[in-house]
Write a structure and sequence with these properties.
Elements (H helix, E strand, L loop, with lengths): L25 H13 L3 E4 L6 H12 L2 E6 L11 E3 L1 H10 L13 E3 L1 H7 L4 E6 L6 H13 L1 E4 L4 E4 L5 E6 L7 H5 L2 E4 L5 H11 L5 H15 L9 H14 L18 H8 L4
Parallel strand pairs: 1-8, 1-9, 2-5, 5-8
Antiparallel strand pairs: 3-4, 6-7
Length: 280
């Protein structure tokens, strides 16, 4: 059982043991806690729906920490995750005047991104860089020293921002693009495989503790059979939980050739049509 944050003298001793909403495998528990203890970024890879992003939220919830979240995009530059200097706003204020900001004070025109906010916070936070593989290699390279040293420089005033408390850094990747070797060297890395049927049953029981066992057995059989059909987008854990909720509400029992609420599992039109009209 996790001790409260107030009982901890050393935040580096924080440990995560899973929650009532998140199944934590022994291997994942081990790598999560060593990365927290050694204050190293943890890179989580695996297909969508394996709980990479949710893990960061559950760590924050369990340890009573605030979160900073960066939903990565292909247009991101590493610097803007740290800060943005709004030159246009400052120029506009210098021309037309303002009562809200001091044009002689550059700090009034700095906007800190999730990394900057996590570093400047008065307490330890969880920092999530979600889907880092959407960024290009230049962005990743720009973040190398920032994540390793937990510091960055505001170039316009040559001011060093150093983390007051090193955040717990989790980085997720769906492996859509290879990450650079220098970036990988600075992280602990863990691949989250898709849950086995046994693990999936444990996950389901966290969300549906009173679900009928016969319904669960049949649903698991149909779900894993469906995932083996070479679909363009196989259903993931989130779809399976939604489907179970619909089945429980309707009291229907699924079969491999008759799947109620197919649209809760399959999202691509091609997959739905191929299931309805299988090739002979």
């Amino acid at each position: 059982m996790n001790k409260s944050l107030g009982d901890r003298k050393d935040l580096a001793l924080l440990e995560f043991r899973g929650t009532d909403r998140y199944y934590l495998s022994p291997e994942l528990e081990e790598i999560v806690n060593i990365s927290i203890a050694m204050e190293k970024p943890l890179l989580l890879s695996g297909e969508a729906g394996t709980g990479k992003t949710q893990l960061a939220f559950e760590i924050a919830r369990a340890l009573g920490l605030q979160m900073e979240i960066a939903r990565c995009k292909s247009t991101f530059q590493g610097e803007e995750l740290c800060y943005v200097y709004d030159t246009v706003l400052r120029l506009n204020d210098s021309r037309f005047g303002t009562d809200q900001r001091d044009v002689n004070n550059i700090w009034d025109y700095l906007r800190f991104g999730p990394i900057g906010r996590a570093f400047r916070a008065e307490e330890k936070r969880v920092l999530l860089l979600d889907e880092i593989d959407k960024t290009d290699s230049d962005t990743q390279d720009n973040l190398l020293d920032v994540l390793e040293d937990c510091s960055f420089v505001i170039r316009e005033i040559n001011y060093l921002v150093r983390a007051k408390h090193k955040p717990i850094i989790l980085i997720t990747s769906n492996a859509k693009r290879e990450l650079s070797d220098p970036f990988l060297r600075r992280c602990f890395c863990h691949f989250i495989p898709f849950p086995t049927e046994e693990e999936m049953e444990k996950i389901v029981r966290l969300h549906f503790p009173h679900l009928d066992q016969d319904l669960l057995v049949r649903a698991l059989d149909v779900f894993y059979h469906l995932r083996q059909q070479g679909l363009e987008k196989p259903p993931a854990t989130a779809e399976f939980l939604d489907w179970l909720s619909a089945l429980e509400r309707s009291s229907q029992l699924p079969k491999r050739d008759k799947i109620p609420f197919l649209g809760t599992l399959l999202k691509r039109t091609k997959d739905i049509l191929e299931f309805r009209n299988p090739k002979r």
